[in-house]
Amino acid sequence: MSDESDYYMDDSASDNYYDDDDDEMVDGTQDSDRESSPASEGEASDDDAFGVELSAAALGKVKRKSYEVNFETLSDAAVDRLMNKEAEHVAGIFGLEPSTALLLLRHMAWNKERLIEKYMDNPEAVRKDAGILAAPPLAPTSSSSSAGVRRSARRANSVQPSAPPSTPFMCPVCCDDEPPNTYALACGHAFCSTCWETYLHTKVREEGEFTVRCMDSDCKLLADDAFIARVCSKEDSKRHHELVSRNFVGNSSQYKFCPLPGCSYTISCPSAASKSSLMTIVPTVKCPENHVFCFGCSLDQDHRPLICHVSKLWLKKCQDDSETANWIKSNTKECTKCQSTIEKNGGCNHMTCKKCKNEFCWVCMGPWAEHGNAWYTCNRYEEREGVEARDAQSKSRASLERYLQYYNRWANHEQSARLSLDLYSKTEKKMEEMQTTSNLTWIEVQFARKAVDEVFKCRMTLKWTYAMAFYLAKGNEKELFEDNQRDLEKAVEDLSELLESPIDPDNIPVLRQKMTDKTVYVLKRNEILLDDTAQGYLDGRWKWNADAAILNEAE
Amino acid sequence: MSAISTKRLQKELAEIRKGCPAGITLLEADDLAVWFLSIEVLGESVYKGEVFSLRFKFGPRYPIESPEVVFVVDNTHQAPIHPHVYSNGHICASILGSEWSPVLSTSAVCITLQSMLASCPKKERPTDNDRYVRTAPLSPKDARFQYHDDTV
Ligand SMILES: [Zn+2]
Ligand SMILES: [Zn+2]
Ligand SMILES: [Zn+2]
Ligand SMILES: [Zn+2]
Ligand SMILES: [Zn+2]
Ligand SMILES: [Zn+2]
Fold it and tell me: Ranges for the RING-type domain (chain A) (predicted)?
């Protein structure tokens, strides 16, 4: 059941210098000193220092990273066992049938502690509320089977098929006066088997309801699982069971369903089960279908490094301000020099106008030449307070502008990440070309795929770093955060650009080396950023600004 | 019509023809799946002298599923002015939705609605009447009612 392979490097990872599983990379252990000085000067210029291909021998078992969580996938059977364990626990304490305990737990939204407390206090009231037969002297049920008698001694709701209580019997629902078979719950309200079947089928299949009352109008007794299993068809009974286990998982903080439509895997992530844990970790998990989602908020993507609460704030803000921000998302812009329309068709921000050869940056529209040595003008928005914050109007304009600066970069990484997937198909073609035009093996051309994967993943990280930067309070810590962000961004843009460079067959070994080096460097930068933010949460280093002030108080 | 609903409706119809509860009259049941009944509140009430008409539509899953019940609104009929009755004739009563039980019958529904009217102290439309009527589905069974306090 354990999903260890998701967090730990496989010892046997051989010909690749990193894990085939694409998201857990080997950490260049020789360079551990660099991790502690993430923002050291000059690092960005000599990225080749990382371009050492790691040998298999260098791959030890790497321990779980600070920004990762342990989780495991639960099979349906495992979920059942957990559910039944809860029921048996309650049944054991109070001497109940497990199926009665299940009804009680469902009634209390699976809050076992509360149920035990309330039941100790006033069992009759709880039973009544939960639609379970009162404990005192057993109403004579018409049951003819000995099993029914034995069970009813423990006062379960389910009673067996019974001979009609008295002859002549007419089913009060369908008015059939000689039904071949009747059933009644412990209340004794008997109905023909066809009516029960139709009724349960309608509830379970049509209404998706698993809490099913006796058909009598004044009776609040619930059909328990044993009764449903006995009366329903196999399919209906199975569906009922599914509804119950979904309810169980949905009500627990320990387990979560994969949020992808149609996927029913359950994940358990104990370290992220408490609300408070979500203030310091971003529990990104992955179901066996490779659906990545957040265990904390069920967002269907990895929103590291930003914690759930702030991610939600940001997504809500984006939704609220989407009208205003829409123009930003546009796929086309005008060349800053000749005004001809330029379409962005790759993930790289380095734009070259086809017409006038003007080179500029897609994000800030500034000349690309300035980006070589002053990249930061693009990743950081200079907050121009003082000058503009004179009156309320310019203040709100300044705040919208500030938002748009971050949103622009957020949306750009989102878009570029998607474009880099398009690029993947191009890359595939290149790979094929490379295989035919050179003597390289399939494994040897994997570096291009790895590069694309890494670019995609890092753009996702970058995307969320802009949401995070939007909410971080100004100061030293934020500056260090933005240094890491800038280093990663620069590395990613370089790699993106390299991916778009033309392939010259003679050049393949050089390109391969270059791309491999840059890929290793990019993953290293991503790791540094994620590790530093994760550590920062644990150290309480991140302070939020007025837009997320609630969170400072919550700490 | 399924076997269950046919047999059941025939039985109900036979009983209603034998004798309706006071204040309730069968108007028409030519189609076994659509019945019309008139309903009035006997004795003192804010609806003294008013007679309303109810339309019952029975689906193939009746009585497992509740019937569709509305007050008739046309040239000659109006829906009662009541906090649980919309001006288009739709009724917000839990007995027709979540509290429905397959042992309930047409007369049981009529009696419940009759007492709902009888206990009304003041003629008033539901507060959300205009909004509801503007967007209401054709059948009230497709509406997601938040049941008003049934004790009113
Ligand atoms: Zn029946
Ligand atoms: Zn009953
Ligand atoms: Zn999944
Ligand atoms: Zn989350
Ligand atoms: Zn141009
Ligand atoms: Zn720029």
Answer: 167-382, 171-214
